[in-house]
Amino acid sequence: MAGRLRLILALHNHQPVGNFDGVFEQSYQDSYLPFLNVIEEFPDIRFALHISGSLLEWLQEHHPEYVERVAGFVDRGQTEIIGGAFYEPILSNIPRRDRIGQIDSYRRHLERLFSTDVHGMWMPERVWEQAFAGDLTAAGVRYTLLDDHHFLSTGIAADRLTGYYITEDEGRLLSVFPGSERLRYLIPFRDPQETIHWLREIADRFDDPVVVFADDGEKFGMWPDTHQHVYVDGWLKRFLTALQDNRDWLTVTTPQETLAAVRPLGLCYLADGSYREMTEWVLDADDQNDLERLRHIDGDDNWKRLLQFVRGGFWRNFRVKYPESREMYARMMEVSTHLAAAERGETVDADVVSDARQFLYRAQCNCAWWHGAFGGLYLPHLRNAVYANLIEADTRLEHAQRDLTEWIDVSTGDYNLDTYEEVRISTHRLAAFFSPQAGGHLYELDVRPCRTNLLATLNRRPEPYHRRVIEYGQRLRSGQVHEDHHVASIHEIVRFKQPDLDRRIVYDRWPRKSLMDHFMDPAATAEAVRRGEGFLSDLSSVVCDMSVRRNDDEVLVQMSGPRSVGTQTVHIQKRVTMCRQRPAELLVEYELTNLPIGQPLHFAVEFNVATMPGGASDRYFYGSSGEQLGTLDACLDLSETDRIGLVDEWQGIDVAVEWAQPAGLWAFPIETISQSESGFELVHQSVALLPHWQICAEADGRWTMDLRFTVSTSLARARQLAEMGQRRENDAPAPKPPVTGPAD
Fold first, then answer.
1. Of 203, 479, 599, 611, whose Cβ has the fewest other Cβ atoms within 10 Å?
2. Residue 520's beta-bridge partner residues?
3. Which candidate, 324, 447, 463, 317, places its Cα nearest to that of 383?
4. What share of the chain is helix, strand, coil (3-state, %, to 5)?
């Protein structure tokens, strides 16, 4: 009857694979632990809890007492555990075999750990496609929680969302709860009585309504200024007290109890989508700005009525918006396919397959694959974690399937899913991927011993919030506004983490990869090149012919094609050689022909090196004679040099590029201005290196140049051996080390 309402409180606690240990700890101290401390005082307030596998593994290692406390909550019936895919992948971003595998393995893990049945699943970022209903039920799931936006965009009116629905795929039934966007913005940012008043209105209008709050647990203490607001200022206690004081008409319950007591509202099939904000973030910058303008054309009330008929973008198009995400996806699919083949065969040890599967699952953690209100894809350490786990899975499978510890191989295929053929050269030390359809550039370089992709770069590109950055920076300098630190949703925050961010917005016109060939204005300067100015040739239309030669010890890939420079067409040929005896080295031979006789040209080869951040004293450049030239965020403008090196002592990586003829060298950091939960920030993405020559061809119109790119990981290997020795002294079990070949 009207007047009685069920409220489901479902919290999602998550930290991504690869996040800093200090962030895990701060989240625990500021959010996860104090929430338990407060709600323990309210034993009649039941709640549902989802902890992602990456966070749960950390908690089991660092705070097992927290896991034991949660088990106590479960045992006394105050908490229902919600399952999920083990490492929180977007389900549409991984193959079906991995979806079912991750969901099933995590359900079984949670049931063993908490001695309870797990029936529900947290849908990562609520990214939904209807076929997932069959995948979830195949993995033993009975219900999931989505956003009310899914239902609205399907055509179900808002006043028909006070309960849950049944959906199905091939006859397999799944219950689906709509989470309330209104509650996501009320809790915990507004006074508790506003929530009570809104719930009371629903209770008075509908018979036995069910309302769901399903959102991030980090907003209770970890989001900006919320720890003070929620705990020190007492918001959470006031909120829970208000729920308790209204128990004559309001029952705080769990999904499983609701399924047992309340009939579904009916059958529905939901459109592919996510929560509203995610469907907007996937749009390009111009479309997002257009959608924002539409909101204000006819007032808020009309917009709300139209909202159920307005749909944003489709999540998979993050791989279109950000080619770097597509590169990770393509590499992940390759490793997943490799693993599936190993599972079907009988040549790879079962333990190797199991370990590789775990690394693959970790690499599928969703946070590094997209960008919205959080840093996500823009955070190098999250992208690096994806590649680290993919490289380790790939390396373990490669070594298990080969008789030799030292090897070299080459293959071709559409490795980045652009419909064209790429080349992969692999050794026991490196894996190098080349794209002949994009000027023959090197777009991925995996260093197996350190589990790092030195080309996990990110381009600087327009984002819709850059307009806010520019406007806010101008107003700050004019004194029209001051930094504001009131408690607000992360979607409303405008805050600079470094000064003058609006003046540092620059956009790239080509991929920040390696072996990018440029013809430039003869008078181009270091500062102009940093701003992307002074380049004469267009890289977007360069297509190279390719040939591959190999024997047991060496692989040679030759790529050649024309390049327009003004009215002249120059032919560029580059030959890349890798050898089994020098497995961590690339030799690149350039030959330029059809050069204009007697006419000077300015030619440069661009390299980018990612995963080696700037600003720390143990990460630095060094020159031809080994002298240090500054930290990796420095800008260099050198003349008549033949070598540049980059060292990251923390990772144990030493990268050297050398060339046969002296050249000028420009080096500078590639830094993005991106959005995070705590404001706008400058993020170091890679270091750009451009050796450049003033060419004046002889009578044959020909110019040649040899370059050598070498990666040493001997520092990392020495540290690994020292750490293993220290563990043996302490009688501690050593984790399985990364698989590597012989030392450098």
1. 479
2. 535, 602
3. 324
4. 35, 30, 35
Q: How far is CA 494 from CA 188, 466, 468, 477, in A?
A: 19, 11, 8, 15
Distance, in Å, from the CA atom of 502 to the CA atom of 516, rounded to the nearest integer, reads: 28
User: Are 603 and 519 contacting, i.e. CB atoms less than 8 angstroms apart?
Assistant: yes
- Catalytic residues, by residue number, are 125, 216
Q: Strand runs (DSSP E) across 544-678, as ranges?
A: 545-550, 554-565, 568-579, 585-593, 601-610, 619-622, 628-631, 636-648, 653-676
CATH 3.20.110.20: which residues of the chain? Answer: 5-281+303-309
Q: Give the largest Cα separation in the chain, rounded.
A: 96
CATH topology of domain 511-720: Beta-galactosidase; Chain A, domain 5 (2.70.98)
Report the DSSP pairing between strands 601-610 and 679-695: antiparallel
Please check whether the domain covering 5-281+303-309 is classified as CATH 3.20.110.20: yes
Q: How far apart are CA 421 and CA 434, in angstroms?
A: 9
Reduced to 3 states (helix: H, G, I; strand: E, B; else coil), residue 368 is helix
Whole-number Å distance between alpha carbons of 623 and 656: 10
What is the per-residue pLDDT across 304-329, written as a single tens digit (0 to 9) for each? 666 666 778 999 999 999 999 999 99
How does pLDDT run across 669-679, given as a tens digit for each residue? Answer: 999 999 887 78
Q: Are strands 210-216 and 5-13 parallel, antiparallel or unpaired?
A: parallel
Query: How far is Cα 89 from Cα 132, in angstroms, rounded to an integer?
Result: 13
Q: How many CB atoms sit inside 10 A of residue 517's CB?
A: 21
Q: Which residues of the chain have pLDDT under 50?
A: 1, 488, 490, 734-735, 740-743
* Helix pair angle (323-344, 96-114), 10° resolution: 80
646/629 Cα distance (integer angstroms): 10
Token pair of 343 as six digits: 């599972």
Between CA 202 and CA 211 the distance in angstroms is 9
Q: Which residues contact 499 (CB under 8 A, 6 or more apart)?
A: none
Question: H/E element holding 410?
Answer: strand 408-413
* 3-class DSSP state of 256: helix
* Mean pLDDT taken over the chain: 92
Handedness of CA 676, 679, 684, 690 (dihedral sign): positive
3-state SS of 178-220 is: EECHHHHHHCCCCCHHHHHHHHHHHHHHCECCEEEEEEEHHHC
Nearest CA-CA partner of 695 in 604, 614, 627:
604
| DSSP β-ladder status, 636-648 and 653-676 | antiparallel
HSE of 504, CA atoms in CB hemisphere, 13 A: 16
Task: Supply the pLDDT for residue 1.
Answer: 45
Count the residues in the chain: 744
Residues of the chain within CATH 2.70.98.10 domain(s) are: 511-720
3-class secondary structure, 393: helix
Q: Which helix (H) or strand (E) segment is 703 a member of?
A: strand 703-712
Residue 630 β-bridge partners:
621
